[in-house]
Amino acid sequence: MDTPDTANSAEEQAAYWFARLRADNASKGDQRRFKTWLEESPKHAEAYALQEEVWTAMQDSAVDDEIMAMRHNALSVSTTANNNSWLKYGAIAASLLVVVVSMVMLNPFVSLDSSGGTAPIDQLAQAETQSSPIYRTAIGQRSTVNLPDGSVVELNTDSLIQVNFGEEQRDLILLRGEALFDVAKDPSRPFVVEADGKLVTAIGTTFSVRRADDEVRVTLIEGIVTVDQDNSKTTDLGAVSKKQLRPGQQLVALGGQPFKINMINTDAVTSWKDGRLIFDNEPLGMIVQEVNRYSSRKLVVGDPTLSDMRVSGIFQVGSIDSFAVALEASFPVKNSARSGEGDIVLTWKE
């Protein structure tokens, strides 16, 4: 079976790690190398998440005689391979590919359009055999993840998160996007979310973390959290300092710059979980960027001077057509479809 160094694609590398982490001789060094590989590219996390999805589907479909027969045929390779453990795990990866084909027939998941509802296909099962499950949402989707300690994570649009729970720690990595955390109290195991080298630590509280490019925003809803820099990921140890947040505060971390803390409307920041976006006297250019996060079709500001126009309102998540219509009805703005691309261009009304 190819190693990450020799495999040609992210999917092959993901298959390697999925098998390696389930080997009897998997070590902490494997876990560290897996974490490094996972953070190298969002494509790695997506490929590994696919392995998780297929594994879950295989478990769900285990009662189907036809699927079981195909799995046994794939796994039979290991019985004639002189007890070679890596061929054994390669056969497991092969059985996953068998189930990918059968998933179309079984259709065990519910598909979803970009209207912004919950995405059952991304609610991967948490099982003891899964060492580091990954949860994801596509553009326009949201998902609720129930963690084994009783904590709840709500993923916003286009997000990826890895869960690393153990007897002594509750660690998560926000690889992309945004998540709202409702943390179950456990003083013996702090709840730590890492996002781009920033460590958010809580015991029992509610907070959100958003990661976009090299910016991380942490908003505290209730309780107390601390935010610190992961010193293993920076050479400038004096650039930032540990901060403690109180409810209603938002910390902004931009690269290695000092942390900034502002008071924030937490209802507006977390309104996406109810399918709404709330804006209060915000520039249209910023609003367009936010609305575009929830749709594969995009809004385009056709006149740069329009970006500075201030807008207030409550809008439905995921419907740029409704947003454009509401904008045209209440502001001196007109919208038109961009030919052949499906995007909507905003310009001043004449």
Walkthrough of the structure:
By secondary structure, this protein is of the alpha+beta class. It is 29% helix and 29% strand. The strands form 3 sheets. Strands 1, 2, 3, 4, 5, 6, 7, 8, 9, 10, 11, 12 and 13 form a 13-stranded mixed sheet that branches. A 3-stranded mixed sheet has the order 15-18-17, with helices on one face. A two-stranded antiparallel sheet has the order 14-16. The termini are far apart. The model is unreliable at 58-64 and 77-130 (pLDDT under 50).
Average the pLDDT over all residues and give the rounded result.
77
Instruction: Give unreliable regions as ranges.
Output: 58-64, 77-130
**Shape summary:** globular
Number of strands: 18
Topology:
Elements: H1 10-20, H2 28-40, H3 42-60, H4 65-75, H5 85-106, E1 134-136, E2 143-146, E3 152-155, E4 160-165, E5 170-182, E6 191-195, E7 198-202, E8 206-212, E9 215-222, E10 225-229, E11 243-245, E12 249-254, E13 260-263, H6 266-269, E14 276-283, H7 284-292, E15 299-301, E16 310-316, H8 320-330, E17 333-337, E18 344-348
Parallel strand pairs: 5-6, 15-18
Antiparallel strand pairs: 1-4, 2-3, 3-5, 4-5, 5-8, 6-7, 7-10, 8-9, 9-12, 10-11, 12-13, 14-16, 17-18
Keywords:
13-stranded mixed sheet; three-stranded mixed sheet; 29% strand; 350 residues; globular; 29% helix; alpha+beta
